[in-house]
Amino acid sequence: MIAYNTCSPPNFVSYCNDRLRSFLPVFLDIATAEIKSYDISDDDLAYYSNAIQYNLQGGKLIRGTLVVLTTRSLLGDGMTEHYWHEALVLGWCVELLQTAFLVADDIMDKSIMRRSNVCWYMVPTVGISNAVNDTMFLNTLVHRIIANQLKDSKHLVTVMNLFTEVSMITILGQHMDTYDAMDASVFDTPTGATSLYYRICKNKTAYYTFFLPMKLGMIISGIDQGNINYSKLESVSSLLGHLFQAQDDYLDCYSDPGCSGKEGTDIQTKKCTWLLATAIHVGDKSHLQTIKENIGKDNKDNVEVVKKIYNDLKLPHLFKVYTQDLKCNIQSQINDIGSKGRQLECAPLNAQN
Asked: Example GO biological process term (predicted)?
C-alpha cells in the first residue's frame, strides 16, 4: 500500500483511481448477486448484467475516485481494508448513480454517442421504453447495494439519506436544464440567462459530482456531522460544479467527438450553457438576434452560425480567463478548510484532468 506522505498528489489520485478500477469485478459480482436474489429469468439476468457493464464502463471515474481519495486523505495510514471496501463500494455506487442519470440524459437530449459507444436507448435490442425503465433499475440498484453492503455500518442511514437528497437535487437540476431553458424570455437579458446557468451548475452538477463523493469520504472517515467543514465543503463543491460544467459545455461545442466519445448537442437542443449565457452577456443585439434565429435547430448550418458568433465574441479566450479565475477561487476556499482540507486541495482539480 502506498502511504500518502510518500506520493505526490497526481500519483496519489492515479493510485486511488487504479484501486477503484481494479475493484470493478468485485462490484459487478455484488450487483449480480443482488439481481439474482429476485425472481427473474436467465435472459433477464443477462440483460441487466449487460445494461450495467455497457453503461458503467468507459468514464474517467471522477466521482468514484473522489470518494476513495477523500477517505484515504483523511484516514491516512489508518485506512484499513474495511475502510477500503466501504470507500470502493460507495465509489462505484456513485458511478452507478451517474450511469442512471446519463442514460436518462441521453434520451432527453436525443444524444447519439456516449463514452465512444452508441447511447443505450439506441441499442437495437433496448429502445427508449426499456431504457427509461433501466434508468429506474440502475437508480434502485444503487440503494439496494448500499443497504446490503452497509447493513452493519453505523453510517447506513446517513449514507442512504445523502444519496436520496442529492438525487432529488440533481433531478430538479435536470428539470432546470431541460424545462426552464424552454422559456424564451430567460434569454432576453444577461441576468436571466446567467441566473439559470448558475442554478443548473449548482443543482444538476455540483452536488452529485463533488459534494456527494467528498461528503461520503468524510462520513466513512468518521468526521462528526456537526463539523464546520461540511458547510465549507458545500461552498467549494458549488464552485467546482461551475468549473466542471463550464468545461463540459466548452467540450460539447469545441471537442472532437473522436476524442470526447460523444457528439455535441447543446446548440441543437438550446441548452443554457456557459457559452450561451456568456454570449448573451457580451454580445450586441445583432449577435443575440442571430443566435435566437439559429439555436435550437438540429441542422448543421444553423449550428455553425452559432459557433461563428461564439468565435467572433472570442468565447474560447474568455473561457480560459473564466476557468483560471475559478480555479484560483477554489484553491483559496480549500486552503481555508484547514490541514485536512489542504491534504485534499489537489484532489478535485487533479481528478478532472
From this structure: farnesyl diphosphate biosynthetic process
CA trace torsion 329, 335, 340, 343 (10° rounding): 80
**Residues 67-121: pLDDT tens digits?**
999 999 999 999 999 999 999 999 999 999 999 999 999 999 889 999 989 999 9
Print burial letters for 312-336: b (CB count within 10 Å at least 16), e (below 16): ebebeebbeebbeebeeebeebbee
344 falls within a domain: no
In the block, cell 467527438 appears at 257
Tell me the one-letter amino acid at 39.
Answer: D
Check: CB of residue 218 under 8 Å from CB of residue 305.
Answer: no
Is 311 contained in some domain? Answer: yes
**Cα–Cα distance, 224 to 119 (Å, whole number):** 41
Q: Which residues contact 115 (CB under 8 A, 6 or more apart)?
A: 57, 58, 59, 261, 262
Domain span holding position 228: 155-338
- Note whether 174 and 300 are same-domain residues: yes
Dist. CA 132–CA 18, nearest whole Å: 32
Taking 60 as the threshold, does the pLDDT of residue 340 lie above it?
no
If asked whether residues 185 and 310 sit together in one domain, one would say yes
Q: Bin 344: left if φ > 0, else alpha if -120 < ψ < 50, else beta.
A: alpha
Predicted TM-score (pTM) of this structure: 0.89
pLDDT digits (tens, 9 = 90+) for 261-304: 777 889 999 999 999 999 999 999 999 999 999 999 999 999 99
Same domain, 88 and 202: no
Does residue 49 fall inside a structural domain? yes
